[in-house]
Structure formats: structure tokens, C-alpha cells
């Protein structure tokens, strides 16, 4: 097996993650619910940890459906339980903490539980299989088409919920659609790449593109470019220096965010 054929599935997985996560990340940043991603990812991980405790392999279909079921419950919670006195970020943070604690408790009672937690956290994208890539690509393509069809209304709900309400849109149902489709993506991504990479692919390209552009298309193009470039650098460094691939990619995303902040500050001074 050549180096290229060995690394190709991991790079294609990064391309798939970049495609859908950059788009959803722009919605998340616009809505100001940054940590909903990592909370839903942790809830999905809790479902997969329970499946592991019951004897299912972490990359099995059963573990996937356990994670998806838990994520759907989390999406329903975030969509319907809003309180004017308590910011939604508080519910998101509490959900993350509780899901993390329950996951640790379950893993503590499982053989090889600590190894499972490490797998869920950092993933193992270097060993992603072709069937997993194809399944994930099909799921994300279908969701991408659906989101493209309703993009104007969904973007209005994210950017200006009061105007969306004035136009007769039912915000709870649009929120439910967003969180359920978001949860479906997160579950598939966590099983393939782990919580840290999922959060990085979702937030960093979106934040970087928001620094420079206001229009959705411009943000998407820059976010996609950043995702692809950073993935390539991370996979290359992981291969050359013999580092874990997932953490290497996440570290590169951190460096790219700092670079974008510096460039944006220089552009402001130049203007």
C-alpha cells in the first residue's frame, strides 16, 4: 500500500466533514449557541458509550443508533426548553457536563472503558473505512440538499428570529428541524472523527470566515478552503512526525484561527 492510498480515506473524510460542518457552523455562530455542537457531540458519545457498555463495538451500526437516539433527545430538549430568565447557553453547558459525567460513570464500569473514552474524544480518522465514508457522504449529501431547499427561511430564523416570527414562521419547529438535522450530522461525525475534531471542523472555519465576510456564499467558500487546507497540513504533519492524526488536525485549526485573527487585525489597521 502506498502512502497516498493509506492517507486518502482520512483526507476524504476531512473533505466530507468540511463540507457540511462549515455550513452548519455558520448557523451556529450566527445563532450564538457555540457550544451546542460539543454538547450534542457529548450526548451522542454518551449513547455510544452505553452501547459499548452493552457489548457493541464503537464503530458498529448499533452504537451509531444508540448515539443517534440520544442526540435526538438532546435536540428535542434544546428546541423546546427555552426560558426567558435563563440563557440557552446555560442549558447547553449543563447538558455537556451531565452527559460527560454519565459517560465517565458508564465507562468506569466497562472493560477497556478508558480506551473507549479516548477513542470517542480524539477519534481514529486514519482508519476510517470506505463503507463508512460512503454512508456518511450519502447522509450529508441528502441533508445538504434539504438545507439548500430551505436555506432562506432557515437563515432568517438564525439571523433575525423576530422578523421570522413576524413573517409567520413557527420558530420552535424550525429550531427542531435545525437541531435534529444537526444532531444527525454530529452523530455520524463523532463515530468517524471524535468529539474534538467535530467541534473544530464546525467552529473554526465558520469563525474564520465570519471575520472576513458577511455574505453566506463568501463565508462558505473561505470556510471550505480553510477546512481543506488545515486538514492537509494536519494529516501531513501527523504522518511525517508520527503524531495522532485527530489531535494534530485540531492543533492546526488552532494555529489557523490565530493566523486569521492577526490578518483581520492587520486589515482593520490598513483600512
Structure write-up:
The termini are far apart. Helix 2 packs parallel to helix 4 (88-108), helix 2 (36-53) packs across helix 9 and helix 6 (130-149) packs antiparallel against helix 9 (171-193). The chain contains 12 helices and no strands. The protein has 271 residues and is an all-alpha fold. 83% of the residues lie in helices and 0% in strands. The mean pLDDT is 86. The longest helix has 29 residues, at 3-31.
Segments where pLDDT lies below 50 for 5+ residues? none
Beta-strand content estimate:
under 5%
Q: Look at the helices and sheets and give the structural class.
A: mainly alpha
H/E series, N to C? HHHHHHHHHHHH
User: Total strand count, please?
Assistant: 0
Helix content: over 70%
Q: What would you call the shape?
A: globular
Q: Cα distance, first to last residue?
A: 52 Å
